[in-house]
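Page 47, continued from p. 46.
Same chain as before, 129 aa.
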Amino acid sequence: MRSRRSSRIALAVVTAVALTGLVGGCGALDKAMDCVKTADAIATSVDKLSTAVSTAADDPTKLNDALNDIDKELTSLEDTTDNADLNKAVDDLNKAVDNVRTAVKNGDETPDIAPVTEAATEIGKVCTP
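Result:
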């Protein structure tokens, strides 16, 4: 179910990108390109985290590995976008991921990733014209 949710997020962002490209100018095109990159990274990140949480009992190291991968993706993403609103949404997602990391360090093997999903949804809102 979480995988479908992240797929819907990516689809919403891609749709918003397509509409932005049709009705906007160069600034909108730049924003659209930032959103495409973000949508792909975010959907992948949410899927990885969701999978890691669901299999944490079998292999708790996968959860930390997934969090490390997400951190790398988000750091790279922050370095490639110049849109202030998009940067804020990525920062919010970083904070949500940090909260999951803290929960895991405190012994929670199945942390609540709803804030991560919510932060990813905010990316879609930022990208909507």
